[in-house]
Amino acid sequence: MNESMSASGGKHSIKGIVLPADPADLFVVLYDLLPDRHFRGLRANEWQGDEAVGQLAEEVCEDVRSFGDADTAHVEQAFDQYGDQGIFAALIGLDEALGVVNPFGGARCASALTKIARRYNEKNQLNDPEGPTTGKLLPRCARPGKLLVQPTGKPDFFKQVHRVTEDNFRNVRHMSFKQRNGAHFSGKKAIPIGSAPLLESYEDLMFDFPEVDGKTFYKVSPRDERLCDRIDHVVKNLDDSGAEIGVMPEGSLSNGLMDHWATHLGTDPEGSRLRWVLLGTGPLGEGDPRPNRAVMVDRSTGETILTHDKMHGFTMGKGQADRWRLPDRPRHEAAAEYLERGDIVTVAETAIGRVAVLICEDIKQSTDWEAALRAFGVSHLFVPLLSSPISRTFPRWDRLAAERCVEVIGAWVILANSLAVGAHIKLPPDNCFNVLVVGPRLPRSLDNGDCVAQFARSENGTELARVVEPDRESGAMRRRPEDAPLPTIGRGGTAP
Question: What is the pTM of this model?
């Protein structure tokens, strides 16, 4: 241990707050102490380029990686000499040091910091849940996709960690999936997504229009007897395709279909790379009304990774039933979705990053979740839809909402639709897609609004959506050969 650390036996403090030696706890304490006002203008940007800041940060980082604890006396001295600039320097050094325990950064963990790596695996956070801090410190696995010449806010200055305050936990359930660090995904960066529509037409669905207190509602549920055989075919297609994650659309799940899916879970067929399946969404559980619930499971164990209850029901506006050519009509318009609404988003720590699920209208109504999911650094959003076809030529609400998630949060977004609505509102086939995957472009573009977009199409309810590219000569959207690729997503990471 260096001389200053060995001589620092007493407690050290800044502004009356005791500094913990644990580097993750210390980061949280210093981060919360440093006023946000420094990040509204250019002051923090000027600090970042200061030679003294770089030297102090390097010293803090070296201490932590060598000894596992921070030299709090050194940090206190930095504050006494440089004020808030000294706090900033210590934070930069701590952030760099903690990069070796970030499982999404690719660095090898220093032996002195294995206690923090173990804490993240066991406790789902880098800081000590029984220590002096509140909220959580999490490894960074996503960065906003918007064009940034320089950092524009406090979180943007730190490459390896996210500070999540207690306020950010409002309406968020944070959990871990215990196999997140297991070798249950391939080592490849690109993860193939297999998405089948399941629903081919309105004949696969039941529409009801209950009235409550003089107001009209609508509810949609799948016809189990039409989908059981299709699920069997979809599972085989997923196994044969090399897909690692399966994603089914909204409206394709029920209590009975959950039981049918269960017959395929808890298995790991030879040659299959399928690891997770988002089984779709539908009215699950008991009660009246029921939630419109999404369920994501681990294929090999049958374990539930996460569930999500739709928070924002879609309101069927005046004329909507006619435009969608529904088989039945509400007696009064507009009609609200008949469901018990959820009030939280589940965020799961996993092997590929930080994962969440939203359902259709949820992604459009972003006020309740966008700030929190950015604070958590969510890297992947899975979004089942029951809607008209996804358009490439005319950016509609679904695509615009997905691209906003890339820009604001930095997440990969997987939109998975069925064929049901599109089968009844005739649109040009060259502009009808049931899957869209958008994500951040790496290396990052020097232009605004630039992201990776993969449009994919299925021809029937059991076929997995394959990427469709424009014809090079005519520009028309043409189906590629049968060996066309599945859409893919990247892993969460720390790339700037």
Answer: 0.93
CA 445 to chain CA centroid, nearest Å: 21
Q: Which pair of tokens denotes residue 464?
A: 């997995």
In angstroms, the CA 284 to CA 305 distance is: 16
d(C-alpha 372, C-alpha 174), whole Å: 11
CA 448 to chain CA centroid, nearest Å: 22
What residues pair up with 412 in beta bridges, in sequence order? 380
CA-based nearest residue to 148, from 438, 412, 353, 410: 410
Q: Tens-of-pLDDT digits for all 496 residues of the chain?
A: 333 333 345 689 999 999 999 999 999 999 999 999 999 999 999 999 999 999 999 999 999 999 999 999 999 999 999 999 999 999 999 999 999 999 998 777 778 999 999 999 999 999 999 999 999 999 999 988 876 667 878 999 999 999 999 999 999 999 998 664 444 565 557 999 999 999 999 999 999 999 999 899 999 999 999 999 999 999 999 999 999 999 999 999 999 999 999 999 999 899 999 999 999 999 999 999 999 999 999 999 999 999 999 999 999 999 999 999 999 989 889 999 999 999 999 999 999 999 999 999 999 999 989 999 999 999 999 999 999 999 998 889 999 999 999 999 999 999 999 999 999 998 887 789 999 999 998 777 667 767 889 999 999 999 999 999 865 555 555 555 567 899 999 999 876 6
Element (H, E) at 257: helix 255-262
> Measured in Å, how far apart are the chain's first and last C-alpha atoms?
33
